[in-house]
Amino acid sequence: MRRRDFDELRRRYWTEDIGEFDSLVILPLKMRHDSGYRCMDFVAVKDGEAMCRLAGGSDVLHIEGVGGYGYDWLSRYNTCPSLVPPVGWSIDCLPTSGLLRMFCHRKIRVGDALSSFEIYSEEAKDA
Description:
The protein has helices at 3-7, 73-77; strands spanning 21-32, 38-46, 49-53, 60-63, 90-93, 100-110, 116-121. The chain is mainly beta. The chain is globular and about 45 Å long. The model has no long low-confidence stretch (mean pLDDT 88).
C-alpha cells in the first residue's frame, strides 16, 4: 500500500476493541504533541490487509505497555514482575511506502488511543 492508502483508512474510536491482528504500521504525522515531539498514528494489519488507523495523537509507543510488563500486569502478578517472558518484536520497512512495520511471533492487541499508545502481544497458548 501507498502512504495515501493508509491515510484514507477509517479511524477506530479511541476505546474500540478491534481484536487481535498480525502487525502494526507506523505513520509519522506532521502534527506535534504538547511535548514537542511529532505524533504518530498506527495501522492494524491482519492477514496482509490493513484494518484501520488506531491512535493519531500519540507521541510515544510503549511495546508491551508502559514498563514492558504486558497487558494488565498488576492484576496478573499483584506486583511489578521480576521476569517478563521475551516476545521477540521485529521491525521492517514496507517495500512501496517505506513506512515501518512492527510485528512479533504472536498476535497483537492495542490499548486505548491516548497520548502514549500501548501495544501488547497476545499470551502464548502454552504459557
